[in-house]
Design brief:
Elements: E1 4-8, H1 14-26, E2 29-32, H2 44-57, E3 75-83, E4 86-87, H3 90-97, E5 104-110, H4 118-126, E6 130-131, E7 135-136, H5 141-149
Parallel strand pairs: 1-2, 1-3, 3-5, 5-6, 5-7
Antiparallel strand pairs: 3-4
The protein binds flavin mononucleotide (FMN).
């Protein structure tokens, strides 16, 4: 089986739950993408404004925990909530910092029904990484994971 890392950012816990489920299914290591605690706000709308400004100004938040050596993995699954039709902004620097990784990358996300441009933006942020199909929500996980493995 491919050695897999599940790397995720979660603001209110849903994506974390999905990440844990996936990590169990494929026996993966986990890495929690974290930024400084004062980066966002407790309020969803304020957080949305902060993230939107970060994207507009190309000022993405720094990660506060070290990324593991990704070269040991065949596959990295990157989890995020959808924020205004895009990945959460901490995902940007994670993808930026693993640009030399030569394995496969795929994203999963949780949302409230309007993911809009999530996948397109994820691919844009992924730069030269080798990106496989994205997956939404907790249903159909096994089929998606089988597709990635195939
Ligand atoms: C700042 C912010 C922006 C959001 N924007 C969207 C959106 O554009 N589309 C959508 O479907 N859900 C949106 N949501 C809802 C989240 O994607 C959803 O609740 C997600 O499952 C939360 O994951 P988490 O608990 O891991 O943070 C937004 C939530 C927040 C906090």
């Amino acid at each position: 089986m491919a050695k897999t890392l599940v790397a995720y950012y979660s603001w209110s816990g849903r994506t974390q739950g999905m990440a844990e489920k996936i990590a169990q299914l494929v026996d993966a290591d986990m890495y929690r993408i974290e930024v400084a605690p004062d980066t966002f706000d407790r309020d969803m709308y304020k957080t949305d404004e902060i993230a939107t400004a970060q994207i507009k100004n190309h000022q993405y938040p720094a990660l506060v925990n070290d990324i593991p050596n990704v070269d040991q993995y065949d596959l990295i699954l990157v989890g995020s909530p959808v924020w205004r039709g895009a990945p959460a902004t901490p995902i940007h620097n994670f993808l930026n910092q693993i640009q030399n990784y030569s394995g496969k990358v795929a994203s999963f996300y949780t949302d409230a029904g309007t993911p809009n441009g999530y996948e397109k933006m994820f691919k844009q942020w992924a730069g030269k990484l080798n990106v496989l199909p994205t997956h939404e929500g907790s249903n159909g996980l096994n089929a998606w994971l089988a597709e990635l493995a195939g």
